[in-house]
Amino acid sequence: MSWRDFVPSGSGSVTTLYDVSGYLGHSEKLSSPEEVIAAGRGVCCGYSNLCTEMCREVGIDCREVPGHSKGIGHRQGQSLKNVKSDHLWNAVLLGGQWFLLDACWGAGRVDMEHKSFVKRFDDFYFLTDPEEFIDSHFPDEEKWQLLDKPIPLEEFERRVFKTSAFFTMGLRLIQPHYFHIVTDDGEANMSLGFSRPVIFTYEITQHQDLLHCGVSEQKESSNSSFGLLTVSHRSMNLQLLPPATGTYDVKVFARPETATTALMWVCSFTVECPIPRATEEIPENPFLSWGLQPTAESLGVAGSSQGSEVAEVEEGIFELALKTSRPLMVLCELVHPELDATVAKRCLATQIQPNLLTCHVLCPLRGFYRLSVFVRDYEKTEVKFHNAVNFLLHCKGKVISPDELFPPNLGSACGPGTRTLEAGLSKFSHTTALVSTQQGKCNITFHNQRDLELHSVISREENKTAAIPLSRHLFCTYTDSKVTVSVSLPDAGVYRLGLYAKTTPGGNFNPMCDFVLRNSCDQPGLPFPCVYSAWRKGCVLFEPRVGLLEPLSWIRFRVRIPGAQKVSMVGETQTDLKMNKSRVWEGEVFSGNGLRQLKLAASSGESSDMAVLMTFDIKQLERETLYRLCELQAPKAKIQQPTKYKL
């Protein structure tokens, strides 16, 4: 006979089953070796007797050890003094040294909920280290503790219950020293250490007397919102905040990082909460722990600007930076108990760079938020996103107003990054996704090394109908490889500036990146001229840089148009511009007293046909104001009488 008579080699099944029916008193308990072998089942004394007989057959000195155990029927916190012991295991003498074993516990476990035996060979309980065995087995005779310093019964009762998985994973208890914890200011803390990467989660439930009360020993995820589980390089800390006065059972689950199985129950605590802490609701975290996940490094996330502790958000704004070991794509999720999912999307802006991921977060409500980050390899579009990071944010001061949120329809790639580099767009004047202006104007410049066809758009949350299209507040200039995108914003607020490019000949425009423009200037910015297709690469408008001109005024125009033979400003009449030594066409043009538009036109090559490049609008004044201005401007207006010209 051998230990494998309890578990046949290679079969994974147990030939000797625990007699649940006998334990519950529904049938006669089988304890003698002959009865156990014949029936294939037995209670703890049956296993122990069989072990004794097996050892006697092969000449091994084996003793039966009666005592208390923290198995089925054990009540956490109960006093075992003057209570008759309820379990039986063995000690064997091998090579002159005594060892402990529990064949009953090593054969599997009892599922009290279904009143059945779960077959599972566990060699941890064969020749177990006495320092580990004593956490769950207390012999009637002190000598069978096999410890240099035996512990009293009261110490055994108070010790934290640890399953075999606790020891096989190499875990160690940091705090608390005993299973029963009383909260301090509504908070309880527990910590475990580990030497190899481990994934953790936990479960908190209303207290039940029985330690083994039928709750599953395995768990896939956590959905508790009453605690903060964080994992650092070599330790796990669980901060619990029970929601109400009462007593709670806490089970901790774990598995090695490389394992794909469910998480196993490793230890248990009882938490007594006399007075709960008054606190805001913590959003549920379905991704096991807070901070960097144990798998983050393998997913390509090398480090974080934020630790695993709660992040206190100042001024309603938070920024997270994640260092990456390779180019990644990112998706972010922001959750608050009272935040609508549509609004939450307008609280996030992400910038994706080859070795850095940046997430900008806005907090429109006070309280706790869960910020979760999901990543995948940049090039592997067929691969699913995986959770790499979860942070708990706490905003208790200033919050962001609804009109300060990021603009709708913001793309996943904000600011220059991996996508723009791949397209050959480089040397951006603004390297971050967020651009602030106090004047209502800004110029964003970059280089277009592959001479791609580009397109830019500007948008915002539409809350009123504008007299002039928002597109008129955007103006692009292309000179050699340099591109300048100029904006003149009509109102204070938040805008989206989107940059697109055709990366393949004849293809569609693909998004390159978005910028978030935040304008704090109350003075309305004037629109730019309306540009037509004839305005092409190399054309530069120097003056005027606005598309809305004052009436009855002399306006100076300065423009560069490569290859132009003639450049004119056309309204009711035509005014030809002259080229100076710098090859800039310039001249002064009168805006007139009833004209609505001035057109910039040019001819090139041998053709005398003139194409319209852009148009300028002229402000329309009330009749009385217009009459007075006509009187003031009349002497100067008579000096120049240009010929009539129509396009």
What separation lies between the terminal Cα atoms?
109 Å
Low-confidence runs: 1-14, 19-27, 635-647
What is the helix content? 10-25%
Which secondary-structure class do the elements indicate? mainly beta
Give the overall average pLDDT.
86
- Strand tally is 46
Describe this structure in words.
By secondary structure, this protein is mainly beta. It is built from eleven helices and 46 strands. Strands 10, 12, 14, 15, 18 and 19 form a six-stranded mixed sheet that branches. A hairpin with a 7-residue loop joins β35 (493-502) and β36. α2 (33-39) crosses α3 (44-57). The longest helix has 15 residues, at 623-637. The N and C termini lie far apart (109 Å). Mean pLDDT is 86; it is low at 1-14, 19-27 and 635-647.
SSE inventory with pairings:
Elements: E1 17-18, H1 20-23, H2 33-39, E2 41-42, H3 44-57, E3 62-69, E4 87-94, E5 97-101, H4 103-107, E6 108-111, E7 116-119, E8 126-128, H5 130-133, E9 137-139, H6 153-158, E10 161-162, H7 164-168, E11 172-175, E12 180-182, E13 188-193, E14 198-206, E15 218-219, E16 227-231, E17 235-240, E18 246-256, E19 263-273, E20 291-292, H8 296-299, E21 301-304, E22 311-312, E23 317-324, E24 328-335, H9 341-345, E25 348-353, E26 356-362, E27 367-377, E28 386-395, H10 418-422, E29 425-426, E30 434-437, E31 441-448, E32 453-459, E33 474-479, E34 482-488, E35 493-502, E36 510-519, E37 530-531, E38 540-543, E39 548-549, E40 554-560, E41 564-570, E42 574-576, E43 578-579, E44 585-590, E45 597-604, E46 611-618, H11 623-637
Parallel strand pairs: 1-2, 12-19, 22-28, 30-36, 39-46
Antiparallel strand pairs: 3-4, 3-9, 4-5, 5-8, 6-7, 10-19, 11-13, 13-17, 14-18, 15-19, 16-17, 18-19, 20-28, 21-23, 23-26, 24-27, 25-26, 27-28, 29-31, 31-34, 32-35, 33-34, 35-36, 37-46, 38-40, 40-44, 41-42, 41-45, 43-44, 45-46
Helix pairs in contact: 2-3
